[in-house]
Amino acid sequence: MFKSKVHFAFYKSLKSRLIFMIFVLVLVPEVVLCFGILNTYESRAVSIRESEVLSQAKILANKISTSKYFDKDGSDLSNIDAQIDTLTTIYEGRVLIVDKHFKIIKDTYNLDDGNTIVSEEVIKTFSASEITNYDSKNHYIELSVPISNPNDKDSKIEGALVVSVSTDNISLNMSYLTQIAVTVAIIAGAVVLFFGVLVLLHLFVPIKKLSDEISDIKDGFGKEQLDVDDYAETAIISRNFNELMSGMKVMDESRQEFVSNVSHELKTPLTSMKVLADSINSMGDEAPIEMYREFMGDITSEIDRETKIINDLLSLVKMDKSAATLNIESVNINDLLEQIMKRLQPIADKQQVELVLESFRPVTAEIDEVKLTLAFTNLIENAIKYNDNETGGYVHVSLNADHQYFYLKVEDNGIGIPEESLEHIYERFYRVDKSHSREIGGTGLGLAITRSSILMHRGAIKAHSVMGEGTTFDVRIPLNYIV
């Protein structure tokens, strides 16, 4: 099992694949080139040999015809026999002279003298055509040339000159050249592979450096950031890794801060309740009933505050876990906002804040009604609670839509948010004015819940604020939920 994993890792290695690619790119062209050259050499050598032998055969055939060789009364028969023997000696071949009755009257091998030969090549030769054939398997060239009087175009064909010559020397040269080509290919392949591996090892040095530095960072040693800019690619990887580490560092700091804030927020009501309980216990039976009631009322308020914090935390946890399981359905957003405004109207009346809803058109969208109701309620309720305008506060909620999104704007003329705090208002337990938040019972989780719910719907939220003039939240959510 371990060996198979090692082998699989080796095959998946970029280095091994590049080495194999270099080997193939070197070996394949070498093999193709070698075979191409050898085949070209063989074809060229055979073609030259055929041309030479054919030329000699034609000359010899003309001499045979003019010397009346078939009548056996020519004056230079011995001279022609000598030329035939010379041809067979030079080209290591065999010559047959066939008369018009297909009878062999001359065989340089003295094997078939007087025999009759009937073959396709000889028959075609008597049709005044030259026949050439190369047998690469048995290494010989066979030619058949008609014998006729060259000075008389109307003369009949008197016979055929059949020549077979060996190509063993061409085959020997081919074998020798093949050995040389294979040797050169092996040496060249080994040299190229060797230097290719060296170059690859050099090229992989920055990648090895990158891997080592990541391992050091993972183990807590070395630098906190990568700085491998040998190649553009390693520089991009280093930059992306550094951005990832920065994000993880911020996330870890946020997690630690969140845990600290949760501990603090949960501890504060408990501390208050303990102080109140200790005060009651220290007084014993002498404490008046009114004081008991006052202290118990304070304890009840602290319990309510603790419960609200826990409920908000549970809402955040549920949203984080159910991001992929939204209960999406088609909802009338106008009716949804009217219901929310109706529930919040008593709070607005108590704060003496005018609550107005303005709808520009009917809007129906695919949403999770429970989660988005919680988000809109938090936005509008915050606008009401943090509105301390002495001249008359208002919260203006407007709804609009186009062909792709619907838009919700929650605008108030309250105390506003400092510019430096705008980028932090969605952080859990973050408060712009902690003392004021405590007075109105805020937990610092409302906007975090709101943002999570809107992002789950593939939406966006932006805040604009001017201190002393008010705050505006703009929400954009798709009409159709896209998975």
Task: Please characterize this protein's 3D structure.
The chain has about 475 residues and is α+β, with helices and mostly antiparallel strands. It folds into three domains: about 15-175, Beta-Lactamase, CATH 3.30.450; about 230-315, Signal transduction histidine kinase, dimerisation/phosphotransfer (DHp) domain (Helix Hairpins, Orthogonal Bundle), CATH 1.10.287.130; about 325-480, Heat Shock Protein 90 (2-Layer Sandwich), CATH 3.30.565.10. The protein has twelve helices and twelve strands. It has helices at about 1-10, 15-65, 75-90, 120-125, 170-205, 205-220, 230-285, 290-320, 335-350, 370-385, 435-440, 445-455, and strands at about 95-100, 105, 130-135, 140-145, 160-165, 330, 355-360, 365, 395-400, 405-410, 460-465, 470-480. Helix 2 packs antiparallel against helix 5, helix 8 (about 290-320) packs parallel to helix 12 (about 445-455) and helix 9 packs parallel to helix 10. The radius of gyration is 51 Å and the shape is rod-shaped. The two termini are about 40 Å apart. Residues about 1-10 and about 435-440 have low confidence and may be disordered. This is histidine kinase.
